[in-house]
Design goal:
This protein has one helix and eleven strands. By secondary structure, the chain is mainly beta.
């Protein structure tokens, strides 16, 4: 089992920035973020695998940056130039190499573990 705890969500105006953080109970090969709006399918946002294989959803490329600290088992998502359509519950996710390595560049691959989420609201 992997426990994940997100923090850093909040409300911001369009064009603003937020930084999400995730604390993990242990190291996993893959970590990432996905988001979900009520009534819609969840969307993979960004992921990082292994020594730094990074992938992003097209909708956030150039605006979001994912990073991790392997020693501290933390994951971050720096979100800049936020848009109202970025409003969603954001979840931290993680998975073991045996599961996620074949999909390490697929940001939409749903990892096994996820946290309870943190809400991001972007107003216009």
């Amino acid at each position: 089992q992997v426990q994940l705890v997100e923090s850093g969500g909040g409300s911001v105006q369009a064009g603003g920035s937020l930084r999400l953080s995730c604390a993990a109970s242990t190291y996993t090969y893959c970590m990432g973020w996905f988001r979900q709006v009520p009534g819609k399918e969840r969307e993979g946002v960004a992921r990082i695998a292994g020594e730094g294989i990074v992938s992003y959803a097209d909708s956030v490329k150039g605006r979001f940056t994912i990073s991790r600290d392997k020693v501290k088992n933390t994951l971050s998502l720096q979100m800049n130039s936020l848009k109202p359509e970025d409003t969603a519950m954001y979840y931290c996710a993680a998975d073991w190499a045996m599961n996620c390595k074949p999909h390490e560049r697929d940001v939409q691959y749903m990892m096994e573990y996820s946290g309870k989420g943190t809400l991001v609201t972007v107003s216009s």
